[in-house]
Amino acid sequence: MTFGELLKKLRRAAKMSLRDLAKAADVDVVLLSKVERNISHIPDMGDVAKYAKALGLIQDSEEWTHFMDVALKSMSEPLTVFTEEELQKKVPVFLRTNSEELPSMEVYKKVCELTKAAFINQA
Predict the structure, then answer these.
(1) What average pLDDT score do residues 41-63 get?
(2) What are the distances in angstroms from CA 25 to CA 10, 44, 56?
(3) Which CATH homologous superfamily contains domain 3-74?
(4) What is the spatial distance between Cα 121 and Cα 123, in angstroms, rounded to a whole number?
């Protein structure tokens, strides 16, 4: 089980929404959502402790220790990798046409090339 899966499981068991947990842990709800979906790493163990406290885990309990162990392990694991087709479906709305169709693979690949070039030039 990934950290994101464990976090989501515990959040749901606590009957908390993403917004509830984000507010209680004083973290960004978008980041929290990405962590749960395994598309963003946990910023640091400080945030993990915030999640644990907000979920009501008791410090140094077996559940707390397991939560921390899974978090540490997940920091070294790769994030979710999407296929070209999956990524194309996730392209932001501004790239979609007026007819709400997905951009062609050719357009998508060109956008990816330009985005990568922009990031490389900033480094």
Answers:
(1) 90
(2) 14, 13, 11
(3) lambda repressor-like DNA-binding domains (1.10.260.40)
(4) 6
Q: State the pLDDT at residue 123.
A: 46
Alpha-helical (H) ranges within the chain are: 3-13, 18-25, 29-36, 45-54, 62-74, 84-89, 105-122
CA gyration radius, the chain: 18
Domain limits of the chain? Answer: 3-74, 84-122
Residue 77 tokens read as 């694991």
Burial of 5 (C-beta count, 10 Å sphere; 0-12/13-18/19+): middle
Task: For residue 2, give every residue at least 6 positions away whose Cβ sits within 8 Å of its Cβ, in sequence order, or none.
Answer: 38, 70, 74, 77
Q: Residues 77-95, buried b or exposed e (16+ Cβ, 10 A)?
A: eeeeeeeeeeebeeeeeee
Task: State yes or no: pLDDT of 67 exceeds 70.
Answer: yes
Give dist(CA 35, CA 25) in Å, integer: 14
